């Protein structure tokens, strides 16, 4: 009998910390007031008169009117360069304990995003909320006695100006509470290995010693790790070595494109739970099993705003025009793409995180990530979000009975005409021309703007298939394997030219 598991499960079911009965808008108002109150004496707080805002009867409206939007480059140029140099009380009291390094899916130079002690506590609290939400998934008591393999970046953080820096997954793993360390795998020693391939090799070697009940990590790197474990031990599937694996907590990117290839590595179905942990904070997690949407964490140090994702509000580099309207949680609507803007306990203010989302349930504050502001494919008016591109790839998987865990594309000028040039990652033998035909037909049917574009300036679709490993090697060459690194889904022509040169060299 799983005595400890029953105790833990009982505690989870007894708590009301995670409840469907909540007022997200009131939560958000309280969060904004706490943020302003805490930061009122910082340089940023004085510049934008946070003390005056706190006396306002229309605090959310006045906050929007006084404080401009910032993306990473803007806030770094105007404010965070002082924080990064070690200065205190710039956009948040004192100085941050950590910096999250993030190249994300754009650019080769890492961003250095402040991570304060308050943000570390916020991420930890969000993690506890997510654990408590497991009561909604009807998992057996013995699940709560199994180990959890968290596949992130290295916890061997570098010191810089009396702060430590690394990817957010490494920072989070280095701050795991003591009571969780007995469940946490791969453990401190292996987690500190910086080289991805060497770390995965050690995981494969130690795998038989662990009783893994849950996995957590970005799908592309999780798949690669599972493949290595299976190959190392000559298994049929991962359940041969971890028979009690029941849950996979995904994050970083949409799980949909990876679903088929991920499931091919399993011996039986597992519960997949989506999370939204960014370098700037823990944004949302899936709270219940009857949806794949995620609940915004509205009471935990992050204030959210939502800008309608319309061409007139977006600059060509993906940043926001300063006169763009933003909405509070009380003002949003269903079936509308929004640019996500956050203010946080790490001193980010009206910060463009780079993601677009839509609401699936406003009362529950549940969302889905629909894409990236910089990955929105709008050349010649096709207006395709990453969510639509993901849907198209999943359609190909079903239509041709293949696995396509990775892809990228570019609206590329060939001669006088534009083509959508796709690279699909698959090991299956396929007809590229037939893939292009079905892909084109699906997008015409799914998106009216794409259909119009295809009748005008968008001449056609071209497809090339390559091994998924090419995508992993590209990420390793340009950034670093593992961790928070994600593949670019949409590239500009210059970047795409680099990609095509790389593909030819492999």
Structure description:
Residues 297-362 form the GH3 middle domain. One of its GO terms (molecular function) is acid-amino acid ligase activity. By secondary structure, this protein is an alpha/beta fold. It has three domains: 24-95 and 299-372, no CATH class; 119-285, Rossmann fold; 377-505, GMP Synthetase, Chain A, domain 3 (2-Layer Sandwich), CATH 3.30.300. 35% of the residues lie in helices and 22% in strands. It has 17 helices and 18 strands. The strands form three sheets. An eleven-stranded mixed sheet has the order 6-3-7-8-9-10-11-15-14-13-12, with helices on both faces. β4 and β5 (163-166) form a beta hairpin. α13 packs across α14 (432-446) and α14 (432-446) packs across α15 (448-454). The longest helix is centred in the N-terminal third of the chain and has 16 residues, at 24-39. The radius of gyration is 23 Å and the shape is globular. The N and C termini lie far apart (53 Å). Residues 1-9 and 16-20 have low confidence and may be disordered.
Provide a brief overview of the structure.
This protein has 3 domains: 24-95 and 299-372, no CATH class; 119-285, 3-Layer(aba) Sandwich (Rossmann fold), CATH 3.40.50; 377-505, GMP Synthetase, Chain A, domain 3, CATH 3.30.300. It is built from 17 helices and 18 strands. It has helices spanning 3-14, 24-39, 43-47, 50-54, 59-66, 72-84, 117-132, 168-174, 188-191, 196-206, 219-233, 259-263, 386-400, 432-446, 448-454, 468-478, 493-505, and strands spanning 98-102, 111-115, 147-151, 158-160, 163-166, 184-185, 212-217, 247-251, 271-278, 281-285, 294-296, 302-308, 338-344, 351-361, 366-372, 406-414, 417-425, 458-466.
């Amino acid at each position: 009998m799983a005595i400890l598991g029953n105790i833990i499960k009982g505690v989870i079911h007894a708590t009301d910390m995670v409840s469907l009965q909540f007022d997200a808008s009131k939560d958000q108002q309280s969060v904004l007031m706490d943020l302003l109150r805490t930061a009122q004496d910082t340089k940023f707080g004085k510049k934008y008169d946070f003390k005056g805002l706190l006396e306002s009867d229309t605090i959310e409206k006045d906050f929007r009117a006084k404080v401009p939007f910032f993306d990473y480059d803007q806030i770094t140029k105007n404010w965070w360069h002082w924080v990064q140099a070690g200065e205190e009380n710039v956009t948040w009291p004192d100085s941050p304990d950590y910096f999250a390094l993030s190249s994300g899916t754009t650019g080769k130079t890492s961003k250095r995003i402040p991570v304060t002690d308050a943000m570390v506590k916020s991420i930890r609290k969000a993690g506890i909320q997510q654990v408590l939400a497991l009561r909604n998934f009807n998992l057996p008591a013995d699940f709560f006695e199994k180990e959890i393999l968290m596949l992130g970046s290295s916890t061997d953080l570098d010191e810089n100006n009396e702060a430590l820096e690394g990817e957010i997954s490494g920072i989070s793993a280095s701050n795991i509470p003591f009571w969780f360390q007995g469940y946490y795998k791969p453990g401190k020693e292996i987690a500190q290995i910086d080289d991805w391939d060497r770390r995965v090799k050690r995981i494969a070697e130690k795998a038989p010693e662990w009783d893994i009940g849950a996995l957590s990590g970005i799908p592309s790197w999780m798949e690669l790790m599972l493949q290595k474990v299976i190959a190392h031990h000559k298994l049929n599937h991962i359940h041969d070595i971890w028979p009690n694996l029941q849950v996979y907590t995904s994050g970083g990117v949409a799980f949909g494109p990876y679903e088929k290839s991920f499931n091919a590595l399993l011996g039986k179905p597992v519960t997949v739970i989506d999370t939204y942990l960014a370098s700037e904070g823990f944004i949302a997690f899936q709270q219940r099993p009857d949806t794949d949407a995620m609940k915004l964490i509205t009471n935990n140090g992050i204030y959210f705003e939502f800008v309608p994702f319309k061409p007139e509000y977006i600059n060509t580099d993906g940043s926001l025009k300063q006169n763009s309207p933003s909405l509070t949680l009380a003002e949003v609507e269903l079936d509308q793409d929004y640019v996500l803007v956050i203010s946080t306990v790490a001193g980010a203010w009206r910060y463009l995180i780079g993601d677009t989302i839509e609401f699936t349930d406003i009362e529950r504050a549940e969302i889905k990530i629909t894409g990236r502001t910089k990955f929105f494919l709008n050349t010649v008016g096709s207006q395709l979000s990453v969510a639509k591109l993901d849907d198209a790839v999943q359609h190909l998987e079903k239509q041709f009975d293949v696995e396509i865990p990775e892809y990228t594309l570019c609206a590329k000028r060939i001669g006088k005409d534009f083509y959508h040039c796709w690279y699909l990652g698959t090991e299956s033998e396929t007809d590229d021309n037939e893939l292009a035909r079905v892909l084109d037909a699906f997008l015409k049917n799914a998106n009216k703007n794409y259909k119009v574009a295809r009748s005008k300036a968008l001449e056609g679709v071209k497809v090339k298939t390559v091994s998924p490993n090419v995508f992993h090697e590209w990420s390793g060459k340009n950034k670093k394997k593992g961790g928070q690194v994600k593949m670019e889904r949409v590239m500009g022509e210059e970047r795409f030219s680099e990609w095509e040169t790389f593909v030819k060299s492999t």
